[in-house]
Amino acid sequence: MNPIDISINPKTDQLNRAALDSASTITSLSGVDTHDIAIVLGSGWVPAAERIGTQIAEFSVSEVPHFSEPAVAGHSGKIRSVDINGKKILVFLGRTHLYEEKGVDAVTHIVRTAAASGCKTMILTNGCGGLNPEWSPGTPVLIKDQINFTGNSPLHGAHFVDLTDLYSSRLRAMCHEVDPALPEGVYVQFPGPMYETPAEISMVRNMGGTLVGMSTALEAIVARSLGMEILGISLVTNLAAGMSGEPLNHEEVLQAGNDAATRMGDLLAKIIAKI
Ligand code: 8IG
């Protein structure tokens, strides 16, 4: 049984029904009944999409019910169905962020839709700030754990979900077979859209965080609640606030993504082929 069909509470049921509705439109638009793996490409990752597999179909999120229009430069709002060695991959180019103020359910709809489309694996990528001075812009980092610092829960009702091994150690080991040098980090999701203050970055360091961003953690929680296996990869696009002596800006994010695109696309294609 698809975990999306298991009744948890009325609110969750309503969200999952909307996801099934989105999934059925994705099936019509792509001609693919069931997808195996979903991947969300975040800031700086969209150029990498060109290197992932053979495209079966591409459409816009605006053609799919219950999805909202993208609001950020570098997030194109496209969905692709891609084939890698017979595996069907659902590629989301861009996501909805909490700071768009459409609510937490709008943020996690992408994950519920992936599950409703049959995906058992959720690959979440993002661009983020790094607290390790050795991670220069353009460094990919595997997410080994997270801190949800948004003050929001993406689950509804008395739905107790285990988050130990949230970011699958099996998938991380697979990534290390592809690229043994990949470092691992603890991702802290802030609400955004402002970047952190240097004092907040000190706090993050004291909490044990090494990556800061504005996405991913809420999505990972919902993916786990739906029984998916999760892989998270951050592209460090800037040193966290106060570390470089320079102010932060979104252009450097896009530039770091373009520069790292080839490496990231090849990495993703190899990992997906192994899953
Ligand atoms: I790209 O330094 C990117 N996204 N919160 N902090 C937060 N989000 C980010 C950052 C950053 N860089």
Describe the structure concisely for a colleague.
With 275 residues, this protein is of the alpha/beta class.
Instruction: Assign a percent range to the helix content.
Output: 25-40%
- Can you count the beta strands? 9
SSE order: HEEEEHEEHEHEHEH
Number of helices: 6
What's the Cα radius of gyration? Answer: 17 Å
- Can you list the ligands bound to this structure? 8-iodo-guanine
Arithmetic mean pLDDT: 90
Choose one word for the global shape: globular
Largest sheet: 5 strands, mixed, barrel
Low-confidence stretches at least 5 residues in length (pLDDT < 50)? Answer: none
Q: In percent terms, what proportion of residues is strand?
A: 15-25%
Structural class: alpha/beta
| Straight-line distance between termini | 21 Å
**Strand order, sheet with most strands:** 5-8-7-6-9
Account of the protein in words:
With 275 residues, the chain is an alpha/beta fold. 32% of the residues lie in helices and 24% in strands. It has a 5-stranded mixed barrel, surrounded by 4 helices. The longest helix has 25 residues, at 250-274. 8-iodo-guanine binds at residues 43, 127-129, 190, 192, 195-196, 212-214, 237-238, 240, 248, 253.
Summarize the topology.
Layout lengths: L9 H21 L6 E5 L12 E7 L17 E7 L2 E7 L10 H13 L4 E10 L8 E10 L20 H10 L5 E6 L8 H10 L3 E3 L3 H9 L3 E11 L10 H25 L1
Bound molecules: 8-iodo-guanine (8IG).
The site of 8-iodo-guanine (8IG) has 16 residues, from strand 5, strand 8 and strand 9.
